[in-house]
Automatic annotation (TrEMBL), chain A:
Belongs to the NtaA/SnaA/DszA monooxygenase family. GO terms for molecular function: monooxygenase activity. The lineage of its organism: Bacteria, Bacillati, Actinomycetota, Actinomycetes, Kitasatosporales. This is Nitrilotriacetate monooxygenase component A. Residues 25-396 form the Luciferase-like domain. Pfam families: Bac_luciferase.
TrEMBL record, chain B:
InterPro entries: Diverse_substr_monoxygenases, Luciferase-like_dom, Luciferase-like_sf, NTA_MOA. Residues 33-308 form the Luciferase-like domain. The keyword Zinc-finger does not apply. It comes from the Bacteria. Coiled coil: none annotated. Keywords: Flavoprotein, FMN, Monooxygenase, Oxidoreductase. It holds the Pfam family Bac_luciferase. The keyword Transport does not apply. Belongs to the NtaA/SnaA/DszA monooxygenase family. This is FMNH2-utilizing oxygenase.
């Protein structure tokens, strides 16, 4: 045994969403909208002493082949308001919301996060995403307006601007002294001015500094620009890689970027998305996992998935038959809209070639191929096996913890909370009680001091 | 509902909550808890007090600028409440802690995206099982526009209100963009939704073009309750076209009567007269055991604030009994309810719930128990049919 102290694991719960990992056809699957589902899910996560609950977001219903995609769960509540409501039924659990930096404005979003942080007594976090597509833009005043290459430049300036707004109050302004009649100690609380390429705004921010100073910042996105964005300013990454090798590579890459931004190793937590299937034994878990994969990838789902790569209508193909011999349509993907996964296939011809080879070698049908190549469960096994795998990955620096995405709403976390968490606690790698009250406390992040913003001089704009 | 001529239809009552109260010195009063204005505990307490009084709903006032005593820009006063939480989130935070009362946050149409607002109001409606609404407002303030940087003030009033009406239209279409039974979970066909029951809204207007559908399923009320304040013709047109509840601030019965008539005329012009429209009188209230006590309190507050509280003559000082007289008399102007602004929340909110309400109940003019579990239900409004739903096939005549 090495003398290296055990790393403490961070765990979070992703409310099952609108993707094909959510098995809605299971009789145990409940509502994904009813607030009772959110209460159940959040309270389970809190009972298990998880760091936070995580919500994804999409601002347009997915469409494929010109029609609304109807094979997966469709619909979700508004991120901010459902998190605000959850603050009323939980005490410690962090509340992380995905909010897009392209289809929002800094003043409003900063206000909403500062409010959420107040209303939850310091439990708010913001997963800054940058989807920019014109398809989503059709739901907003200004339509689709951002070239792809500008998505992170806007995101960076958005976050910088929001930070200026958060920091426009340092937390010492409110005296609320009824006797003397002094409400504010500082007459200029909230003064800000930001002039930049994407935002040119000034005035007074109207929410006083919140318990965490600023919300915790998450990044999700895997490109070079995304990794830099995270290294420069995020507190945590919602990552993609839950396996040992890919995880370690990603971990080393992103953590290796921190020093250049004057930051230390522990200022950025890497938390990949992870799915799991529990059984009484490993063998049973594998059987259940196989069944879950069949439910996640129906024949129709497999065809639709293949269309993401082929970029053409494949509805005439038999999911239990071989892959199409025709090649993918190269160029802008027009078949599937509103899906991040489409962008994973940067070279569809190569992907198609690879898949055909794999299918021939293993004699796989379309459906079997899709099952084999898409999001396999990260953790499959008995509670002991899963606890061991999670611990091993974290100790090996493939991650700092995981954001668990159960496949059933809302009870999909229950068994994990009851069986895996106690084993991690026995190993001494996961808390048995919350040590603090805020999400920053749970993640071991310091409350940021407000950047000292000198009172802005009226900058002439040419 | 059958109402005899001796006991007129019960009044609807709402309270407007903002900081420590309408009076600028309210935060200095005993019990005001000014250091807690930014906590959930404070707002939950107020909502629960209002619910104890069986009020129809509470509004959460808001704005996208720091409060200011100047109508044209920010001030540097340190003796007034400055800062407030986002109203929509505050309403959502309170929703799980209340059971019957309606929750109506203010929303500024001028600077927000209707797509975001639609789901942000639908969600507390889901959380509260049908008790959400919104109070739509506009902002022509240059210093508020500079927080967004997208456009420069001034804006013409008519333009602002026309944009707000489009905003509400988009929001309403998005609420209807899911039919109630769109989610089918058909295991046999693998279909989670019936996409025939999800609709693009395809709104095209001067300020918005929005495609839809919403990402959030239709809220329990179908259409949460939309309300707006009336102050001048342009706002009357918004109320007439877009609202289920309009607030009318008037100095006296005649003023209220004139405003009501103007809004009703505007309503007729829209052709929507079949839909019920509540008009509420809007009043700031200072309630005490008797009129001299209330006047003395207001005087003391004015002295603290350093100037008389100008609420344009729409402030009431007096006893709960006198206020009950006024409300019942003012109702003859065509008002079905009132939005009361507590001068000092710590004092006047409990005076409303514990003295005014019992007084109105004694006179047969206010409910003794919540008679419905949605806000529309409390206001006697039907749950609207979905504009996109094809009428169910009717048997041939
Ligand atoms: C694990 C993960 C989760 C994501 N979740 C969301 C989401 O909920 N909403 C969204 O709009 N985008 C989401 N994204 C998409 C990214 O935010 C988006 O692709 C990105 O910002 C574009 O940057 P990239 O090119 O760096 O990936 C997610 C991405 C990853 C890797």
């Amino acid at each position: 045994m090495s003398s290296k102290p055990l790393k403490q694991i961070h765990l979070a719960a992703h409310f099952p969403g609108v993707n094909n990992t959510t098995v809605w056809s299971d009789p145990a699957a409940g509502s994904h909208i009813d607030f009772d589902s959110f209460i159940h899910f959040a309270r389970t996560a809190e009972r298990a002493k998880f760091d936070f609950l995580f919500l994804a977001e999409g601002l347009r219903l997915r469409e494929q082949g010109g029609e609304i995609y109807d094979l997966d769960v469709v619909g979700r509540p508004d991120t901010f308001t459902v998190l605000a409501a959850l603050a009323a039924v939980t005490d410690r659990l962090g509340l992380t919301g995905t909010i897009n930096s392209t289809f929002n404005e800094p003043y409003e979003v900063a206000r909403q996060f500062a409010t959420l942080d107040h209303l939850s007594e310091g439990r708010a976090a913001w997963n800054v995403v940058t989807s920019w597509d014109a398809f989503t833009g059709e739901n907003f005043r200004r339509g689709g307006f951002l070239p792809r290459e500008d998505r992170y430049s806007r995101a960076q300036e958005f976050l910088a601007t929001a930070t200026e707004l958060f920091d426009s109050w340092d937390g010492s302004e409110i005296a609320a002294d009824a006797g003397s009649g002094t409400f504010l100690r500082n007459a200029r609380a909230g003064v800000f001015a930001h002039r930049g390429r994407h935002f040119d705004i000034e005035g007074r921010f109207n929410v006083p500094r919140s318990p965490q100073g600023r919300p915790v910042i998450f990044q999700a996105g895997d490109s070079e620009e995304g990794r830099e964005f995270a290294a420069a300013g995020a507190d945590a990454i919602f990552g993609r890689y839950g396996t040992l090798d890919a995880g370690r590579e990603f971990y080393a890459d992103v953590k290796g970027r921190l020093a250049r931004h004057g930051r230390t190793h522990d200022q950025l937590k890497i938390l990949p998305a992870a799915t799991f299937v529990l059984g009484d034994t490993d063998a049973e878990a594998r059987e259940i996992a196989h069944e879950v994969r069949r439910l996640q990838v129906s024949g129709q789902t497999a065809i639709k998935f293949l269309e993401h790569v082929w970029n053409r209508d494949l509805s005439a193909y038999d999911p239990d038959g071989p892959l199409p011999e025709t090649d993918p349509l190269v160029g802008e993907n027009t078949i599937a809209l509103g899906r991040a996964s489409v962008r994973q296939f940067r070279d569809p011809l190569a992907t198609a070639r690879q898949w055909r080879e794999l299918a021939r070698a293993k004699n796989l049908s379309i459906r079997e191929l899709v099952i084999a190549t898409t999001a396999d469960q990260t953790f499959v096994g008995s509670a002991a096996t899963i606890a061991g795998s999670i611990d091993a990955l974290v100790q090996a620096d493939a991650a700092d913890g995981f954001i668990l995405v159960p496949h059933i709403t809302p009870g999909g976390l229950d068994a994990f909370a009851d069986s895996v968490v106690p084993l991690l606690q026995e190993r001494g790698v996961f808390r048995t009680e919350y040590e603090g009250t805020t999400l920053r406390d749970h993640l071991g992040l310091a409350v940021p001091a407000p950047a000292s913003t000198p009172a802005p001089a009226p900058a002439p704009v040419s | 509902m059958s109402v005899s001529s001796s006991s007129p239809a019960p009044l609807h009552l709402a309270v407007a909550l903002d900081g420590a109260g309408r009076h600028p010195a309210a935060w200095r009063e005993p019990g005001a808890r000014p250091a807690e204005l930014f906590t959930a505990r404070y707002w939950a307490g107020l909502a629960s007090e209002a619910e104890t009084g069986l009020l129809d709903f509470i509004t959460f006032e808001d704005g996208l600028a720091l409060q200011s005593s100047s109508p044209t820009g920010s001030d540097e006063r340190t003796d007034r409440v400055r800062g407030r939480l986002d109203a929509v989130l505050t309403a959502a935070r309170v929703a799980p802690l209340t059971r019957r009362i309606g929750l109506v946050p203010a929303v500024t149409a001028t600077h927000t995206e209707p797509f975001h607002i639609s789901k942000a109001i639908a969600t507390p409606d889901h959380v509260s099982r049908g008790r959400a609404g919104l109070r739509i407002q506009v902002s022509g303030l240059a210093h508020e526009a500079s927080h967004f940087g997208r456009r420069t003030a001034p804006f013409a009033d008519g333009e602002l209100y026309a944009e707000a009406a489009d905003h509400v239209e988009v929001v309403r279409r998005l609420w209807d963009s899911w039919e109630d039974d769109a989610e089918i979970r058909n295991v046999a066909t693998g279909r989670f939704v019936d996409r025939e029951k999800l609709h693009h809204i395809d709104f095209e207007g001067r300020h918005f073009s929005v495609r839809g559908p919403s990402i959030t399923p239709r809220p329990p009320q179908g259409q949460p309750v939309v309300s707006a304040s009336g102050a001048g013709e342009a706002s009357y047109a918004l109320i007439a076209r877009s609202a289920e509840v309009g607030y009318v601030a008037a100095h006296d019965g005649d003023g209220a009567r004139a405003a009501v008539a103007a809004i009703r005329r505007a309503r007729e012009a829209t052709g929507a007269t079949a839909e019920p429209l509540h008009l509420f009188g809007e009043l700031t209230v200072f309630l005490d055991a008797d009129a001299p006590a209330a006047a003395a309190r207001l005087e003391r507050l004015d002295a603290l604030a350093g100037l008389p509280h100008g609420d344009g003559g729409t402030a009431f000082t007096g006893s709960p009994g006198q206020l009950a007289d006024l409300l019942l008399e003012r109702r003859a102007a065509g008002l079905s309810g009132f939005l009361l602004r507590p001068g000092v929340i710590a004092h006047d909110l409990p005076a409303i719930t514990r003295s005014l309400v019992p007084e109105l109940q004694r006179r047969g003019a206010f409910r003794h128990a919540y008679e419905a579990d949605t806000l529309r239900g409390l206001l006697g409004l039907e749950r609207p049919a979905n504009r996109y739903a094809r009428p169910a096939a009717r048997p041939a005549a």
